[in-house]
Design a protein that fits this description.
It is built from twelve helices and twelve strands. The chain is an alpha/beta fold. The chain folds into two domains: about 190 residues, Rossmann fold (3-Layer(aba) Sandwich); about 140 residues, Rossmann fold (3-Layer(aba) Sandwich). The strands form two sheets. A seven-stranded parallel sheet has the order 3-2-1-4-5-6-7. α1 links the parallel β1 and β2. It is globular, with a radius of gyration of 20 Å.
Length: about 350
């Protein structure tokens, strides 16, 4: 059985890249031939892989000649990382020829991240495996919608989801949303959790800096907390790619997921409103705080019993994470999801 994964894999987003790598590797470890389908979604390319345009010509000029070269370097770093640690199809597919994949794969997985967010994909229903023939196995693993579908889209989406052999959702509320459509769904972990921390450590690039806290997806509350934590311990505050730095802050710009993981793994503490920033902080057993309680973070906090990472409930930064318990909870969730996959492929 040859398995093809359709997901967001070719964009300079740390979480998107790492979940694609993890899912492909996890399926391959089950003994199946697996690769990521090199699909080019027009709206994803427009959002992530081409220079932005602004109404202000000066702003456009500044972006094109100062920021875009840095972004190009990061795009290249991500792609090299993907090629090194995962299997990606040699053939490139678009909306015009995606149906040709039916000749290559006997099973299709629609992967994690917000692939069912129709605003992000501009209503690209290929992420619901619309192009897959009826006799092919169709599976969702960790798929996310981001938000509820509109009434007019719900019927169309429902018809496509009913064709799936199995659906595993990354967030509890997305699982409930699909169950409300009369379709069975299971709550599964983010694919990045399918690999062990040891496996992720084997992929990291060690940072050249040390004695720092890391702020990723910053806001005022996170930055204030990071400065407080760093000042009390004589640490530097590193912030990922923020334009205007305050006194005591330094910019850091990892050009690949391997560098990004290295920065998290070696940080004295992480302050982040990123979903995957939170997850990888947990994988590497780091002190971490967040202010974001989106459906993604809520699902993680509930499943792992992790309320002490919420900054609003620990403004003095005194709570320590019981990593013995959290590691056990993550291991259980990982094994539950692996059993979900094994049942799909081998029963």
């Amino acid at each position: 059985m040859k398995v093809g994964i359709l997901t967001f894999h070719n964009i300079p987003n740390y979480g998107a890249a790492l979940q694609a790598v993890a899912l492909c590797n996890a399926v391959s470890k089950l003994g199946l031939e697996c690769e990521i389908i090199n699909y080019k979604c027009e709206n994803i390319i427009k959002r992530e892989l081409v220079p932005k345009k602004f109404s202000n010509p000066l702003k456009t000029f500044k972006y094109r000649y100062i920021f875009w070269p840095k972004e190009q370097k990061r795009i290249k770093g991500f792609w090299n990382f993907m090629l090194e640690v995962s299997n990606i199809s040699d053939n490139i597919y678009t909306q015009e020829n995606i149906g040709d994949t039916n000749k290559v794969y006997s099973c299709f997985i629609t992967g994690s991240d917000q692939i069912w967010n129709l605003k992000i994909t501009n209503n690209d229903l290929n992420y619901f495996l619309k192009f897959v023939e009826d006799d092919k196995k169709k599976v969702a693993v960790g798929s996310s919608a981001g938000e509820k579908w509109s009434v007019e889209k719900r019927e169309q989406v429902s018809k496509l989801l009913k064709r799936f052999n199995a659906i595993g959702c990354r967030e509890k509320d997305v699982k409930q949303l699909i169950c409300e459509l009369g379709i069975d769904a299971q709550w599964v972990c983010d694919p990045t959790m399918l690999l062990t921390p040891e496996e992720w450590r084997n992929m990291i690039i060690e940072p050249s800096v040390k004695d720092y806290v890391f702020v990723y997806y910053p806001n005022a509350a996170l930055l204030e907390a990071a400065h407080k934590y760093a000042k009390e311990r004589g640490l530097t505050v590193f912030v990922l790619n923020i334009a205007k730095l305050k006194t005591g802050e330094k910019n850091i710009y990892p050009n690949s997921p391997a560098e990004w993981m290295g920065i998290i793994a070696n940080a004295e503490a992480i302050f982040t409103d990123s979903y995957h920033g939170l997850l990888f902080s947990l994988y590497f057993n780091r002190p971490v705080w967040t202010t974001c309680m989106s459906n993604r973070q809520k699902s993680v906090v509930e499943k792992l019993n992790l309320s002490n990472v919420i900054l609003n409930e620990d403004s003095n930064l005194e709570n320590e994470i019981n990593y013995k318990e959290i590691n056990q909870n993550m291991s259980i969730f990982r094994n539950e999801t692996l059993e979900f996959l094994k049942k799909i492929f081998f029963e």
